[in-house]
Design a protein that fits this description.
By secondary structure, the protein is mainly beta. It is built from three helices and 15 strands. Strand 10 and strand 11 form a beta hairpin. The longest helix has 20 residues.
Length: about 250
């Protein structure tokens, strides 16, 4: 004997109920109310899960970091520059030169720095503050070159300066008994141009002229610049640029 409940599902009413039940199940799946069989439970934030595993509070994925800055180190002892002094013929270096730095914007500003060159013709300029300068060079037996205007720090580590060679007259002064004299001046006259210069006598009886062009010169000792020279007391000498002429002058 058939079950009356089973027979009820086989009729038109049972078919209608099954269609309605199927439609309801499909609607649940489309609307997202039905559970996903592939997942075991509700989805969780992975960052929160990692923080819980480490015993920390969850953090945002966007972390602001301060930019890395490289500190700039400024020289505390000033800048340096090496000056190389050369004879303009490029045959030899100029020894024992003097380099002076004045303010670059002034025609005759005070000397801010002064450095001495060595026997090898090199001068180490150090401890210079940044700025614009006028560089002047002086060396015995050479005409001073034109001033060089530069800015510190300089673009190169070494600056080459060429100088024009000149005639140099130097020597010693003594009396008739061979004793050194340390008074008076030496008057040097160019026989062609008539130009006159005076150079002092130091405590050891030595004298040295400024840079002179080549020519014929007379040298005479006088007690002071405006004093007249005794007749016949002078010496004569001829020299070319680059010559170094030494004299022994005796004053009776």
């Amino acid at each position: 004997m058939a079950n009356p409940l089973t027979r009820s599902w086989r009729g038109p009413k049972g078919i209608a109920v099954l269609v309605l039940l199927s439609s309801f199940i499909i609607w649940l799946g489309v609307s997202g109310l039905a559970p996903d069989p592939t997942t075991s439970g509700p989805m969780e934030d992975p960052l929160k899960e990692m923080a819980e595993n480490k015993g920390e509070q969850p953090q945002s994925a966007e972390i602001e970091k301060e930019p890395q800055r490289t500190p700039i180190k400024l020289p505390t002892e000033g800048y340096s520059l090496e000056v190389e002094l050369w004879d303009e013929s490029a045959v030899r270096r100029v020894a024992e030169g003097v380099i002076r730095l004045r303010p670059g914007g002034l025609e005759n500003g005070e000397v801010l720095y002064e450095f001495s060159g060595g026997a090898n013709g090199l001068a180490d300029l150090h401890g210079i503050e940044s700025g614009q300068y006028k560089l002047e060079v002086e060396a015995s037996g050479f005409f001073p070159p034109k001033p060089i205007y530069l800015e510190i720090p300089f673009a190169k580590k070494r600056l080459r300066v060429e100088m024009e060679a000149a005639l140099l007259l130097f020597g010693n002064i003594s009396d008739g008994k061979g004793k050194t004299r340390n008074d008076g001046v030496i008057r040097i006259s160019n026989r062609h141009s008539g130009s006159v210069t005076h150079c002092p006598v130091d405590n050891e009886g030595r004298f040295s002229s400024i840079a002179l062009p080549g020519g014929v010169y007379s040298l005479v000792w006088v007690p002071e610049e405006r004093a007249p020279a005794r007749v016949g007391s002078g010496l004569e000498a001829a020299g070319a640029p680059g010559d170094r002429l030494e004299f022994e002058i005796t004053v009776e």
